[in-house]
Model the fold of this input.
Amino acid sequence: MKIQGSLLTTRAQTQTQPPPVTPTPDDARRIRRLMLYLGMVYAVEGIGQTDGIISQPLSYYFKEAHFWTPVQVTAALTAFNLPWIIKPIYGLVSDFVPLFGYRRKSYLILASILATGTYLLAAQMETPSRLLFVLVLTAYAMAIASTLCGALLVEIGQRYGTSGAFVNQQWLWFHIAAMNSALIGGLLVQNLSPAGALHGAALIAGIAPLMIVFGTWFLVDEEKQPIDLPELKLAARSLLTVFRMRSLSVVALFLFLYWFSPGFHTPLYYHMTDNCISPRDISAPSARSRRSARSAARWFIGTGSPSSHRGACCN
Done:
């Protein structure tokens, strides 16, 4: 799961935030449209992230078709994390360098088209090096879309005091999609060849981002903005200043220790498949998919509470 936070402070952002305004009928319509849009985007995220529907078919393909070891598989999958580590850069650029006049819409549409194109390419590839390169591009596309959708959530949520409802909507549909993606990925592995399961998962993951393209075009209202290079430079300097703060180092160390643990899923997957007479017969792939689905279900139960994310303002 990827979490976004903003550490930048510019002149515009240091001003006191106005209190939430009472929505007019037009504002209420805009909020409903954004609620629908957030559900759509994060459902696509649950399907299209590299730990979504393609996760198990990809590991299965590397193991069965190319006889990769657990170390090789884990090292390859680690490359998918880099696009998520540099998420603040996407927000910084989109904030101050509008594309075709829009800070969010244009980037969201292009990122989703990139995700669709690269997944459809992956659906035709079997060479591991080329496959990994293309899938890293899908990770960049998903990370960009997630960042900019989160920016929309923050902007409108702070304006109308609806951040909690927006975040609930976001994670609710993400985990619904993640549950179903895990189960479908297991079914693909159980019923198709390694290459067939991988290509089928890539095809599904490639179709899903088209929902973001159409949703962004029809559901997101955004005024055109000029490029603001002075603010971009100021924000970049602020970012560098933040990285020099001792307190940030303490927070970074805490988060590193919190999330650090030996890779569990890949070794367990190899153990389940290598120590069974027939992985397909005893449903070892399906067992992994059920485990992933149960994990998503626990998050789903948490996000189902109306107060579970109250006061949250970013993803």
Summary: The two ends are 10 Å apart (CA to CA). The CA atoms of residues 179 and 294 lie 7 Å apart. Residues 128-160 form the longest helix (33 residues). The chain has one domain: 25-303.
